[in-house]
Amino acid sequence: MQNEYYVREEKIIEKTEIEKEIELIRTIIKTREELKVANRNFEYAQEGLVDYYTYQIKANQAKLDYLIKLAKQKGLEVDMINDIKYTLWDEGEEAV
User: Fold this and answer.
1) pLDDT tens digits for range 4-24
2) Is 45 in contact with 2 (CB distance < 8 Å)?
3) For the segment 65-85, what is each residue's pLDDT rounded down to a tens digit?
4) Fewer CB in 10 Å around end: N or C, the chain?
5) Contact residues for 56 (Cβ-Cβ < 8 A; gap 6+)
6) Residues 38, 53: contact at Cβ < 8 Å?
7) How far apart are CA 57 and CA 51, in angstroms?
8) Does residue 3 come out as left (phi exceeding 0), alpha (psi in the -120 to 50 range) or beta?
């Protein structure tokens, strides 16, 4: 048997608190959009896809509820202005 050498992974740099908050807000925005898409698709779903979109709606709603609970615990608020700012920032554009 050959000796197996394990490469020690480098320590992942911890994110700052602001980076964590920004990531949480982006995740909330993304999940909210995924929920909207699932709701729209559910409206036009036929036969076998009804169950699929029902599951997606329930899963996204549970995830969104959890993320909003985390945001409230951290004292974060997401309004339409910040929503646009974080969405633009996520797309690599410069937010004003």
Assistant:
1) 666 665 655 677 888 888 888
2) no
3) 999 999 889 888 766 545 655
4) N
5) 34, 38, 41, 42
6) yes
7) 10
8) beta
* Tokens (6 digits) for 8: 């020690």
Residues shown for the chain: 96
Among all chains, which residue has been given the structure tokens 């699929």? 52
Q: Report the distance separating Cα 75 and Cα 39, nearest Å.
A: 29
Domain regions of the chain by residue span: 17-90
96, 43 Cβ separation under 8 angstroms:
no
Write out the DSSP string of 19-68: HHHHHHHHHHHHHHHHHHHHHHHHHH--THHHHHHHHHHHHHHHHHHHHH
